[in-house]
Amino acid sequence: MAKNFKLVIITMEKTVYDSEVIYIIAPGDIGYLGVLADHAPLITSLRTGNLDITDQNGAKSRMIINGGFMEVLNNTVTILADSIL
To answer: Beta-carbon neighbour count of residue 4 at 10 Å?
Structure first.
């Protein structure tokens, strides 16, 4: 069984997503970044692109983010997105 971590996605208007997930793929400035539970601490900028999410039930979804920043710390990923397209 895969281990979960918390994903929080925030725009200037509201919190868009706040739930447990198994895996995400985020559009970093120099390429896409995959994140699983127990990932090393990280802060990075994000470019416009697809944010792929696999939730705790294994369901996959996709959001298009328009840049921002991502912090990975203590099994919590926080994405501050400029906007969701």
So the answer is: 16
User: CATH no. for residue 31?
Assistant: 2.60.15.10
DSSP codes joined into one string, 15-54: EEEEEEEEEEEEEETTEEEEEETTPPPEEEEEEEEEEEEE
pLDDT tens readout for residues 9-37: 999 999 999 999 999 999 999 999 999 99
What region, left, alpha or beta, does residue 49 occupy, with left being phi > 0 and alpha being psi -120 to 50 degrees? left
Quick check: 75 and 56 in contact, CB under 8 A? no
Which pTM does this prediction carry?
Answer: 0.94
**Into how many domains does the chain fold?**
1
Q: State the residue range of the domain holding 44.
A: 5-81
